[in-house]
TrEMBL record:
Keywords: Glycosidase, Hydrolase. GO terms for molecular function: hydrolase activity. It comes from Heyndrickxia vini. The keyword Hydrolase applies. Belongs to the glycosyl hydrolase 1 family. It holds the Pfam family Glyco_hydro_1. Its EC number is 3.2.1.21. The active site is at residue 367. The keyword Hydrolase applies. This is beta-glucosidase.
Amino acid sequence: MLDKNFLWGTATASYQCEGGWNEGGRVPSLWDEYLHKNNLENGDNASDHYHRYKEDIRLMKEGGHKAYRFSLAWPRIIKNREGDVNQEGIQFYHNIIDECLKNGIEPFVTLFHWDLPQYWEDKGGWAEREVCDAFVRYAQVCFEEYGNKVTFWSTFNEPRYYVFSGYKIGNYPPGVDDTQKTIQASFYMMLANALTVRLFREMKMDGQIGIVHSYAPIFGVDNSLETKIAMRKADNYFNNWILDTAIKGEIPIDMLSILNEKYDLCFMKVEDFEAIKQNTVDFVGLNYYARALIKPYTDGETILRINNKGKEAKGSSKVVVKGWFEQVFDNPDSTYTEWDTEIYPQGLYEGIMQAYKKYGIPIYITENGVAFYEDVSGEKSVDDQGRIHFLNAHIDAILRAIEDGADVLGYFIWSTMDLYSWKNGHEKRYGLVGIDFENNFERKPKSSFYWYKKVCESNGATI
Ligand code: BG6
């Protein structure tokens, strides 16, 4: 039997759902600047959660949710590099948190889900130490304001995805391919994580603090030694530099020594390593969409190509890390979404078991979901049986892992409602609640919403 306190919920992120991008004193984030400048589909209005959060939280309650994972927008809370606080922004999140608590929903709060204020991006963004220090000051404001209401805090959502996409793949802002900056930004985010955990302890906060990782459990194409070596390198690339660093306080030494041959690591100071060692997280959030199936590197330059276009680019994803490994995106035995994401629930079971054996701390599955093209314009709600099937199989994987001893304490579906998907726009729909973006953002719960209500209310017994 599942613990009665298991947190069943759904998740969003500020930039992806709020809208109101220039309201209530919010200043631009790097996403506003980048998407506007490049004339790309943006989240100016997103799902209009900024104006409709009460309705959304009421729907969560109706849907049986025990928890809601969302992020605070730094550009709503801190106005400038001097650290001046925007009271209207502060109040907005008080309203959300209070509304959750009033409805018996546990707020599960992320401090940073990628919307860095543009005023810090102008100073070099996460590749600079100054931003790391500013993040800790921002965290302090949030802890002081909301600390007596919020139990579950996460420092970062998916540092790996953010850093690699922005600084190496170049498909997210700042849109560059610069390995030195990739290393710096990765390090400073992990340092900021440790310094924020230290602050959390110094402030004697009630509650728990963790980090959320884009988890790609590593699988090999065969059992050869070459594949095993490639798998280790892929594990460092995808997972270890976040998880080992945040949970064990150790940056993988084999990775540092390879990087040290070609790049300048002098910016890492002895006291930074000490801070990382001493300030580890209480729990880990794992976002699971797919495993990484790995084969040994063959030849050619590094290619990191992710399909952000959907069906018109299906099959175009390619990941080759020169000298390290290659990722397989065309396994004939697998099915893939229109965005090249493999559907592989067993990867979640095995990933949880591996992570729990290795780290032994509580795990929350902080995101899991599947995207489809869906027409929500009609009178009838979307009958998303494909999503129900997907979610059912993944929850089943979690329940099996718990039965086999893993300490998984919560599960959040991505996403609460349809929202803006980074670079993919609004047509990549993940929500349990459909949003009719063309028709006054009307909320239209899909079949999966009613299915999940039963799962939450029966504490997983209907799986
Ligand atoms: C996670 C992020 O990487 O995956 C979310 O935390 C994101 O913000 C989700 O939206 C799905 O990715 P995408 O690119 O399909 O929106």
